[in-house]
Write a structure and sequence with these properties.
Strand content: over 45%
Structural class: mainly beta
Helix content: under 10%
Shape: globular
Number of helices: 1
Distance between the termini: 27 Å
Radius of gyration: 18 Å
Largest sheet: 6 strands, mixed
Order of helices and strands: EEEEEEEEHEE
Length: 125
């Protein structure tokens, strides 16, 4: 079966397979470049304001987020996996949904890709 990947994040993704990185550069041949599809899966968030905190004279707002429904997530399609944020993947609990794996960084600390994928599927709820 041919597997297709659909990126439901707003960012292009570099997913590294069995190849390793050397000196902050991903070795060719072991990566997938996955452009954004233009469709974005997100979790709705409601925020409740809490008391602000002041640090070094700067007052910072504080809120308590409550995660809601997922938007922008298409139904499962045979042979297609969807890449979304970790929060969406965990909330969706579907076998076809993944998030980028462990982040890979250059020596300067800039994200250059992700090592594989993460699955949050836990069977039926």
């Amino acid at each position: 079966m041919v597997i297709k990947i659909k990126n439901l994040t707003p960012h292009p993704l570099t997913i590294v397979g069995d190849r390793l990185i050397s000196g902050g550069e991903i070795l060719k041949g072991g990566t997938l470049q996955v452009p954004p599809s233009g469709q974005i899966a997100r979790l709705a968030v409601e925020r409740t304001a809490l008391d602000p905190v002041t640090i070094d004279g700067v007052t910072l707002p504080v809120s308590r987020p409550k995660l809601g429904e997922i938007t922008g997530l298409p139904p499962a399609e045979e042979g297609v996996i969807l890449i979304v944020s970790a929060l969406v993947a965990e909330a969706a609990n579907r076998a076809d949904i993944f998030s980028p794996g462990e982040l890979l960084r250059s020596p300067e600390g800039v994200v250059i890709g992700a090592k594989g994928l993460c699955s949050y599927y836990k069977e039926a709820k």
